[in-house]
């Protein structure tokens, strides 16, 4: 039943918005999860691959320090130092302030389970879309029809991990992201990233089935 629902919704999304939504679930310590393992270095790389493949991304394969910090809270000082040395912030104080604002998990995430939504045989934590602005507006309108507003929060540095995974999961709200230096290479220039908690997918189903009065 769950798989059929995913397949139908994903098919409607692809036809309406020309977007392949990706389902993502956090894998915590002690959770028995089976599936093909892809040891990739970055979460953004994994999300791109998950448009067509179902697999598990182990935390141990990640080389991106921001991703490590977001998933397990590791290397906070290293991140701040890296941001300052690479000239991404104006001062060490600014680096510490930015890092302190990054949503992250603490210690017990061992990986991510990813899949095209249409093939997902699990209940995701979030569903991620890469959309043109007009389609982003349409999905925002669909969520607003049910009373949910999108308060976008992004910094151009932590897109594929904090902005589209940690914020929606921890705060139970959708979020927009413009990507970052690492993730932009996997998306078209006119695409915006949108991530919504899986619990809100029913609002999109109402819209996609033509039952709401949101703009077409």
Topology (SSEs and partners):
Elements: H1 2-17, E1 22-28, H2 43-49, E2 55-58, H3 65-72, H4 76-85, H5 92-101, E3 109-116, E4 126-131, H6 133-145, H7 159-171, E5 175-177, E6 192-197, H8 201-208
Antiparallel strand pairs: 1-3, 1-4, 2-3, 4-6, 5-6
Helix pairs in contact: 3-7, 4-5, 6-8
Q: Can you walk through the features of this model?
A:
It is a single chain. This protein has 216 residues and is an alpha+beta fold. The two termini are 28 Å apart. It is globular, with a radius of gyration of 17 Å. It has one domain (2-208). The longest helix is centred in the first third of the chain and has 16 residues, at 2-17. It is built from eight helices and six strands, in the order H-E-H-E-H-H-H-E-E-H-H-E-E-H. Residues 212-216 have low confidence and may be disordered. The protein has a six-stranded antiparallel beta sheet with strand order 2-3-1-4-6-5.
